[in-house]
User: Fold these one by one.
Assistant:
Number 1:
Amino acid sequence: MENTRLSNASAAKSRPRKFVAGMAAAVAMAIGCSGALAEMPTSGSIIMFGQSRENPYFGQNAVGAADIAKKFGWDLTYVEASSQEQQDAAIQQMLATGNKPIGIVLNPVSGAAAVASELAIKQAGIPLAILNQVPSAEQKDLFDVYGGVNDFLSGVDAAKLLIAGAKKAGVELGDGLVVNTVAGHTAAQQRVEGFRSVMEKEFPSSHILADVNSGGYLENEGYSVGSQIIPANKGKFNWIYGVNDALAFGAMRAAKESGIVPGKDALFVGGTCMNPTTNAAVMAGEIVGSSVQSPYIEGAAAMYALAAFINTGKVIDDEMYLSSDNPPSIDEPPHRWNFMPNTALEGTEDAYKNTVIWGKTAQELCNYS
């Protein structure tokens, strides 16, 4: 698998100053264990600061992390936020108590804008694992371990799926459209960078006509953006990349309403399997292929990395691509960047049944929304 160092190109966005009522109480319930750990604790609390679980991907991140924490006898409390300022305020509230959890798992709302909170957690001596948005090499002193997806590679895989789908359909790839997520979301930016890097190399005459932020991650957001950019560019493109399968599916719905036939007039690719609806579109060939970027496995990967750091007190300052066969050992120091498996899926039912990651089939893992 490719060994690609990621960049963190996103800029901080201004956000409204609001705070979730009751956040302080949620944090207070989660803490109470000393952060000075001489050995692997058999009980205690982990705090996971994340984004809204109304997004099923982030909900499954929390489930995966909580399941692995439970294996070690730890409780996990999830504190969600809808803006980086809101998340920063929750972290500052936790730190102000003076009590320390065993460790913290952080899914930042904005990877670039979360730097101050990461620094504060490190200065407090609390083990910190990050997931979902890959920190750059320049940020390595701000966290202990990263466990999760390599989003640059996710974009690379999506481009390869698109190219393979075009070859299968006998289609020459021309210009295309990108349906993106929330402005400033580092992971989405890295996916587009990876996608673009392959397309520029393999199809230098192909251009991205529009790269539009949808304001969300789900099918309805993809449909909304698709309804704007597809009619405006009709006849000028023959592929659409949605940075996840739900966005690609939503854009495909909009394309059909404009008289565009998937697989004939335009090819659609996302690259992150999600639910029975998107999976069916992959198996029908309407979406050219997908990959098992499982949020459950991502949450588990972050927790395994954190547990290994807590257990050994060490970290290997490099990156590791984790095996799909078994979870990593916590008896060995984790790497700084621990990239979860991201297995490609063909558009067949057998591929979903027979692809297994850490004992769970793709059919199980690709069903969270």
Number 2:
Amino acid sequence: MLSRDLAHHAELQHQLGFKFRVQHTLLKKFVAFAERHGDRRVRSARVLEWAMLAPSPQQSRNRLLAARRFALALSAEDSHHEVPAADTLGRGLLERRIPHIYIAGEITALMQAAASLKPAGSIRPLMYETLFGLLAAAGMRISEALALQLDDVTDDGLIIRQTKFKKRRLLPLHRTTSHALDRYLAARRGGLGQRGPRIHDLRHTFAVRSLEQCLHDRDAVARHIVALSTYLGHAHVTDTYWNLQATPILMTQIAAAGEALHQGAIA
């Protein structure tokens, strides 16, 4: 009963646009606990019993409030669900962690330490040095920095798309920060396989070698391309063309086919 109620509740939250991941995980634990005791509806005493099993007072309060919100939603349709009081475990004022305000020397030391990371000569030291510098210079959330894509770097600044409150914003950057980003992006283009072999290139190799072994007949090639597209799992045959690359063998075959077509036209 409670499992079904939770499934419906989670579906509603998702339809409303909420991720509902952490809450769902927590509530599944509560529902499993309550159903092991034979409960078919939320019971305040059971909520308190489950909440008190948490390893800390703060986590006990988090459990209580999560179960309480669940009970409130269920009680709107079925008054037999009991809603525990929010202050059952006390009001528990939120303790704000005092932030550390970095001085310039500390930020410099942090970036220098990042630049010294191993393995030397890899992209890793520069990546962390750039990340810490960007966070210090732009004040963005770490989640926003990690979600940045190449297209988000513009002449006007950084486009922040993955925001906490679903609102895009543009972050203008100091020229020194822009230069540091350009340096990092140049290193990525030169050092992350974009100019050398990649694992994904094995897929391209498979597609090309497969086509090289196909009969030179135009109809045979057409049938082979359709079969290859299906084998590679592409939704459209045009997607398969992106996996192909000119090779001496293919260029020879294309030239021969073109010559044969030309000779036929002349004849």
Number 3:
Amino acid sequence: MSVPAAYVGIILIWSTTPLAIKWSSAGTGFLFAVTARMALGTVLSLLLLRLLRIAVPWDREARRAYVAAALGIYGAMLSTYWGAQYIPSGLISVLYGLMPLFTGVMAAWWLNERSLSPLRIVGVLLGIAGLALIFLAGRALEHIAWQGIAAVLGGVLMQAASAVWVKRTGATLHPMALNGGALLLALLAYLLTWAVFDGAWPVQMDQRSAGAIVYLGVLGTVVGFNLYFFVLKRLSAGAIAVITLITPVLALLLGNWINAEVVEPRVWQGTACILVGLLIYQWGGHVLRRLRRGAV
């Protein structure tokens, strides 16, 4: 596969995932939808590992890495699916656009990385300001919407913590092995959660809900992950970061066009603030250094 095709594939999958989450939960309940997605994704991932003869080790170091990665697959996704019941799908993508900012802050604190320059702190503060605008929009939408925003934001924080924790473990696993082991642990947690709090099969599942679950299980969980690591090995971190700038806007437009979701003006203002914050965080220092060199 060509790198540009894989890059476009990631953008399309990440932009459509929030809308698919809403559709999958609409006719089945969010617990069944996320559990079914992860079950399908786990089976396909393990089959792919077997086909490619990639080992999934279970030594102490590997188990720690699986638990760290499972925090994002289980905790983050569970919070996101619950919150998706109450907010527009595009807003989910906007909130996940904050992940590079949260990851940078956590890495500086947890891994002692010197990644927070004064300019990057400005970018983080702009992201927080955009988030505040979105919370105000949530209160204007309906009483429960701000709770949905808080739940998805909690999922973003757990996803960022999971990424930093995986790095902290220092495990040298094949990315697909890491995904397979983490999915297996997360699936056990999902099955237990579904059995305790729901445990009922949907009485009726429409084609859109079923199709969304299959889409998320195959493309969102297996294909998207593999495309991401394929691109990650071949492009710079800056090129990868552009994806987080494109997907929120595209997801908002898709939600409005396909699902007739209303996008409040404050949501657009908050999104713009977050995107500017991401631009400053990712490239502000580089631009400033070039300007200084040009002035000398």
Number 4:
Amino acid sequence: MDNVDARPGPPSGAQWTIVADGHEAVVVEVGGGLRTYRADGFDYIDGYGENELAVGGAGQVLAPWPNRIRDGRYTFGGATRQLHLSEPARHNAIHGLTCWLPWQLIAKAADEVVVGVTLAAHPGYPWSLVLRTRWQVSADGLRVTHQVTNASAEPAPFGLGVHPYLRLPATSVDDMTVHLPARSRLLVDSRLLPIGAAKVAGGEYDFGKPRRLGPMVLDTAFGDLDRDSGGGSAVTLSNPEQGSSVAVWADSAFGWWQMFTGDALPEDRRRRSVAVEPMTCPPDAFRSGRDLLVLEPAETWQASWGIRPGVATPTRSGNG
């Protein structure tokens, strides 16, 4: 038999670094996700070390569904399916099926990398998908393009999200100013599953105009987005007093934003950064059908999002 190379390597597998115009990102083999992203020397992504596992979904691609499915059980095409309960404490299936799979290197250049994985059919999700992600850096920031093809003979239910944690220089979560162009939020039960919706206008969840986050705890899905002329939207975190900001933008395929202030994470990561997660569908979409995508056999779906560091308008200080 051939010898096996059993030398220890990083828990996240191979590391692919891309660099351009003062921007640098590291994409990893395990999950095909984002481990680090920095611009002009500052780490805007609160990622994880080369010798660590991803914590709290940090930087992961969430497919073929984002967020949670109640009891991991759903019905599609007249058949009821049971998924593994990957969040056993809440009896949910969470964050899809590709987070811990080994993704392959498809192409690599100095400023971009393309990685891919084939999700094989199994009893809980009896469809095969071919996923590709292109990660690119430039003077404009980080751009990510996802492409998913249904390699099955039957239509497949599908959704996608991503899970970057964002931070700003010398800024606590409490001191971040948030701009989130949404008109409603989902109400959830103790298992963080949707039980209704509420308008946000004029209330504590209204970030339609930039507002300091303060001690507010978020693990909340926002919808009914105010979109730009191209159909996309963006969430911006800023510190006006310092003049720093970072925006996460997403194209028209993404109709939801999940905001998570990290209060449930281990102590060393608790409330250290804010997850700003674009999603194509809300939690539990496999059961509700809300904004659920259905990929026909051989159909390919594509969408893009990205991270753009910027400059916020400084707040005037003093007496005028």
